[in-house]
Amino acid sequence: MEFYSHPDKKLIVHLQEVFNINKDKVEDKFLKAYEIMAYGHDFGKFTTYFQKYLLGGKRNKFSDHSFTSALFVGFCAIKEFGENNSIPLIIFNTVLHHHGNLENPSNDLPSSFKEITPNDYLILEKIEIVRKQIEDLSINRDDIGKVYRILGYEDCFKEFLHVNIEELMKKIKRIEVLTERNNKTDENYFIHQTLYSALISADKLSASGTLIPEEKYVTYVDLNREREEKIKGKSGEINRIRREIFESIQENIQRSYDKTRLFTITSPTGTGKTYAGFFAALKLKELLNDNRKIIYSLPFTSIIEQNYDVIKDLFANIEDFESEKGRYLIKHHSLANMDYNTDKYDIDKLRAELLIENWNSGIVITTFVQFLETLIGTRNRMLKKLTSMKGSIILLDEVQAIDISLLPLVDHVLKKASELFDLRIIMMTATKPFILNGAVELLADHQKYFKFFNRTKIIPILEKKNILDFIEEFNNNIENKSYLIVCNTINESIKIFNGLKNIGRDIFYLSTNLLPVHRRKRIEEVKAALDQGEKIILVSTQVVEAGVDFDFDVVIRDIGPIDSIIQCSGRCNRNGLKDIGEVYIYSLYDDEKEAEETLYAKYVYGNSTLNVVKEILQNQAEIYEEDYFKLIEQYYTKIQEKKNKDKSEKLINSIISMNFSGDKSANEEKDRIPLQKFSLIENNAGYFDGFIIYDQTAKKVFDRYLEMIKEKNFYKSREIYLEIKNTLRDYTVSLPVKYQGIFNEQYGLHVLPYEGVEDYYNMITGFIREEKGYDIL
Predict the structure, then answer these.
(1) pLDDT at 548
(2) What is the Cα–Cα distance from 655 to 415, expressed in whole angstroms?
């Protein structure tokens, strides 16, 4: 009998491909474990139940293959590694969940290794299914035996047909108990994740028949030639400083490349960190004499697009770059188009998605979410690319954007991953948080550059002020200058915009209350006006703090964290071509709670952070840019003392104990947070995504969405999704659930039809909200 893993692929071919695709990415000491997983992960597909299902039969409990496959690999692993080793447990769990997200192995094992009781009724049900499947496998034992003779596991297969399932499960449970008791280490977690990643990425590549293009790399000399061409003729003091910083960093990486795995670049905003850091990574790659992947990770998609274009332009004279772009350079984030350019290989959108999600390129530009939720997490889709990270050079830019409560966790994981995955990490920032202590600073005299720059000064005005008083004061003091006003909440920003819109000056509005398609257009309008020297006013939220290249004469920011204030100052007198730019810090309170004088900032940042900020800023009339470095050090020192580290510590405990999903049969332990709950972006409880059919483009994409829903072929449906996903997001806005009734729920989308747009949305400030409220987004 012939056995198939997929309609057009023989099972033996698939098993061999899964092993061969990633065998070179697995350390030698774990290669046997990976071989067992690769050859056994689809063992359950040898049943006639699955083969009939593959030919168009109905799916049923006997055609499911993951649990039987997990027991088979667990059995083979115990034969190979014994019962006093964590590897059989790791292999069992990775195969068990190779079609879904990771969970704790205890969720599919008996509650005790001593006996299986009636309380384990779900396990008993699964045991009966496995017995039935083994009976079925026995019918075709000769044909299956031939396959496993070729693979080298015939004896293991024949013994498994006679195994006592209950005893096998109790053995695996015992290994789990011993691992939890005696062998809790970070290393177990990273072994688990590496093997899981190798399996699921190879499984998907084989199943889709994707040919894996060879990654392409470029030399430091070739790209630096283009960089020098681009900066040729640029004069002025700031460009001299940028060149000096660049050369200093390149010299220091050459001196210290073999002394550590961890590096930092601490340099003021606007001093060319993108070039300096990227070329340091290129030089490091060549000094290590290896074709290591460079992974450039940033907090926001807007910065990714900007930095991707900067780096892409360096390839102008690389002969085959345009025809083989995907092999040299990709960007990967939730809004990126799934285009993998290569003339050498035939890559459709579905295969392009796989290659991009597996980071199949010499240089990858991606988000913190993609990078950190691959190192920490349980999601199948994220973890595919972990195996591609091994040996990479990681650039981390603007790390201050990470929630400070997660920094101890990030610090812990980066240090462990650098050791276990042979990573080199370069962290770049103007406001350096307290992580990666002991790293080599590549701009050793960075403090002098902070002292050199005197483009801006912070002016704290900390007495509480309501919106009406602020608007009146602004009107009375406005000068012939451009102004950026940064608010903490959308309601606050709209109130200020409406209060100023008749001021007799061009005034713009920007926040996530606008559809993304309109937000991009607004940014272009503001930049064009500023470039022409117009003295405009922009009222915005924190959306401008990073990745938006604005240059205003004056910035006014509602009080917030010091690092956010300094990021805002980077939108003021950016190139140092004007007099010292003024950055005013106000403490604006919610007019609707006037009796309490509740600060808008409290809704976003909480009291403890704000108290630290007030403590640092009070009694200071002006703080010049030359003192920002000292200011941020003072802030991080105080905030570390006050900030609760419980969240990080509980997640670290879950890494050590491989606590992926929590124990469903018991109360969650107080000292652990299951890793499935880790997210770099906090979900906004009480919010929903609303799709607004604002124009004909939105209407067409919604019609296409309906076609996708009706399409029964998964691959065709997925192709349509990849075609329309960015346009869908362009017309989607996150809103409080109190507005959900305005939208019609249609096939998984909350839709505001074209007929309702005039009443609920405008291009000036976006979604029309109630006047009362303090929505954060």
Answers:
(1) 75
(2) 14
- With a CB cutoff of 8 Å and minimum separation 6, the contacts of 527 are 549, 550
Would you state the structure tokens that stand for residue 670, as one six-digit string?
A: 């107080």
Residue 245 pLDDT exceeds 90: yes
> Which of 333, 518, 383, 486 has the alpha carbon at shortest distance from 93?
383
Going along the chain from its start, the domains and CATH numbers come out as 4-208 (1.10.3210), 220-448 (3.40.50.300), 454-642 (3.40.50.300), 646-675 (no CATH), 687-767 (no CATH)
Instruction: Spell 148-159 as b/e; 16+ CB within 10 A means b.
Output: beebebeebbee
Other CB atoms within 10 A of residue 724 CB: 18
Q: What is the pLDDT of residues 531-582, one digit of tens each?
A: 999 999 999 998 887 667 789 999 999 999 998 898 899 889 887 778 899 9
- Would you state the structure tokens that stand for residue 180, as one six-digit string? 């939890």
Q: What is the DSSP letter of 36?
A: H
User: Over the stretch 64-96, which tens digit does the pLDDT of each residue have?
Assistant: 999 999 999 999 999 999 999 999 999 999 999
Query: 590: which residues sit within 8 A by CB, 6+ positions away?
Result: 492, 596, 597, 598, 599, 600, 774
| The residue type at 443 | L
Helices (H), 360-406: 368-375, 380-383, 386-389
The residues near 90 (Cβ < 8 Å, ≥ 6 apart) are: 33, 188, 191, 192, 195
* pLDDT tens track for 346-368: 888 888 889 999 999 999 999 99
Which residues have C-beta within 8 Å of that of residue 412, sequence separation ≥ 6? 648, 652, 655
- Please report the DSSP string for 420-457 in residue order: HTT-EEEEEESS--S-STTPEESSTTHHHHHHH--SEE
Of 343, 628, 589, the closest CA to residue 487 belongs to 589
Give the tens place of pLDDT for each residue, 27-46: 999 999 999 999 999 999 99
CA angle, 684 then 686 then 692, to 5° = 90
**Under a CB-based contact definition with an 8 Å cutoff, are residues 485 and 770 in contact?**
no
**Residue 329: strand, helix, or coil:** strand
Could you read off the pLDDT of 737-750 as tens digits, one per residue? 999 999 999 888 99
Q: How far is residue 478's CA from residue 197's CA, in Å, rounded to a whole number?
A: 57
Angle at 525 between CA 521 and CA 527, to 5 degrees: 115
Coil, strand, or helix at residue 347? Answer: coil
667 has pLDDT over 60: no
Encode pLDDT of 159-181 as tens digits: 999 999 999 999 999 999 999 88
pLDDT for residue 588: 95
Q: Transcribe 631-673 into DSSP letters.
A: HHHHHHHHHHHHS--HHHHHHHHHHHTT-SS--TTSPPPTT--
The torsion angles phi and psi of 539, rounded to 5 degrees, stand at -100, 125
* Helix/strand/coil percent split, the chain, to 5: 55, 15, 35
